[in-house]
Amino acid sequence: MSYKTLSKEELIKLEEKFEKQYISFKDKNLKLDMSRGKPGPDQLDLCMGMLDVFNSKSILNSEDGFDCRNYGCLEGIREARELMSGILDSSPDEVIIYGNSSLNIMYDTVSRSYTHGIFGMTPWKDLKEVKFICIVPGYDRHFSILRHFGIGYVNVPMLKDGPDMDMIEKLVAEDESIKGMWCVPKYSNPDGTIYSDKTVKRMAALKPRAKDFRIYWDNAYGVHNLYDDYEELTDILRECSKAGNPDMVYKFASTSKISFTGGGLAAMAASKKNIEEIKKQLFFQTIGHDKMNQLRHTRFFKDIEGIRAHMKKHALILRPKFEMVTATFEKELSGTDTASWTKPRGGYFISLNTMEGCAKEVVAYCKDAGVVLTPAGATFPDGIDPEDSNIRIAPSYPGIDELKAASELLCLCIKLVSVRKLIKNCK
Amino acid sequence: MSYKTLSKEELIKLEEKFEKQYISFKDKNLKLDMSRGKPGPDQLDLCMGMLDVFNSKSILNSEDGFDCRNYGCLEGIREARELMSGILDSSPDEVIIYGNSSLNIMYDTVSRSYTHGIFGMTPWKDLKEVKFICIVPGYDRHFSILRHFGIGYVNVPMLKDGPDMDMIEKLVAEDESIKGMWCVPKYSNPDGTIYSDKTVKRMAALKPRAKDFRIYWDNAYGVHNLYDDYEELTDILRECSKAGNPDMVYKFASTSKISFTGGGLAAMAASKKNIEEIKKQLFFQTIGHDKMNQLRHTRFFKDIEGIRAHMKKHALILRPKFEMVTATFEKELSGTDTASWTKPRGGYFISLNTMEGCAKEVVAYCKDAGVVLTPAGATFPDGIDPEDSNIRIAPSYPGIDELKAASELLCLCIKLVSVRKLIKNCK
Question: A291, B263: Cβ pair inside 8 Å?
Answer without folding.
Answer: yes
